[in-house]
Amino acid sequence: MYMLTSLCSQPLTGNVSTSLVVGDELQPSAENSFIDNEEQPATPPRSRTPQSKKFKIDFNIKEIIAAQTGGDEIVHQMETGLLPHRSRLQAVRIFESHLMEMFGDRPSSDVKLCLAKAIVDQFPLLRDEDGEGYEAWFTSSRGKHCATGYIEERLRNVRKRCKNRAVLAKAKEASSSSLLSTVTLNYTTTEVTHEEAESMTTWLKYNKEPLAQVKEFMEKTAASRAVYVRSHPEETVATIVDEYPHLLATPGMIEQDFRLMLPEAADALFLKWGQMSDGIFEYANKQNNWQQYE
Questions:
Q1: Tens of pLDDT along 31-86?
Q2: Is the entire prediction scored with pTM above 0.70?
Q3: What is the 3-state secondary structure (H, E, C) of the chain?
């Protein structure tokens, strides 16, 4: 037997190595085994053509687990064969993270199979009596049956969640872009430059009167204010109010902003109040201390 070392497409750490295990090299045929070199001309050596190849990855399970927070306790439980459900879930999450880091979100069946075998080989008390003993961790697909096991299910769920998050993020981005385009259009119609809007915003932070000028500046800065709020989703309400204190300090400013940004929907609540009021009051009565928001 001899071994050829090959590099993975991903950089490898000290807890995993990759090899190609090659079968026995071809031996000379029996009829040529004992021919006298003087009677028979020397023949060139036959090429070493391997009979079989098998992809193998050597996972250091203990090192992979112990490198994480709380890993030493999980390793101890795996060594005793008493792996609680919660610890097993944590171990599977660690394996999933390691696989995705090393091989991406869709590691091959050979990779997952090597990991499953390594788990029960290095922790024999976790080996099941059925089959080869590693099938609970990973079982390859066969025919119409999909791959199963703790590792496979975890990877599948992670890919599904990532896909859902990507779809939601894309929809949110599209919605945000649509809103911002509307706000930008309204902003241009106000004929207020960016510098003028900043100056008015600064003035509004430090002045409460005259009231007519406050309302005028709030109206002229409504579009830039909407852009700021929508482009900073991480900001809290308190931070936004600190930036634009007249939203609460001066009655009617929130309603004014809403009317300027969404004029078609500004009167919807008033016009449909008769249809919606019963449901709103019913919901309010189910809340605790709702009167303090009057």
A1: 444 334 444 445 444 444 444 456 678 899 999 999 998 899 999 999 999 999 99
A2: no
A3: CEEEECCCCCCCCCCEEEEEEECCCCCCCHHHCCCCCCCCCCCCCCCCCCCCEEEEEEECHHHHHHCCCCHHHHHHHHHHCCCCHHHHHHHHHHHHHHHHHHHCCCCCHHHHHHHHHHHHHHCHHHCCCCCCCCCCCCECCECCECCECHHHHHHHHHHHHHHHHHHHHHHHHHHHHHHHHHHHHHHHHCCCCHHHHHHHHHHHHHCCCCHHHHHHHHHHCHHHHHHHHHHCCCCCHHHHHHHCCHHHHCCCHHHHHHHHHCCCCCCHHHHCHHHHHHHHHHHHHCCCCHHHHC
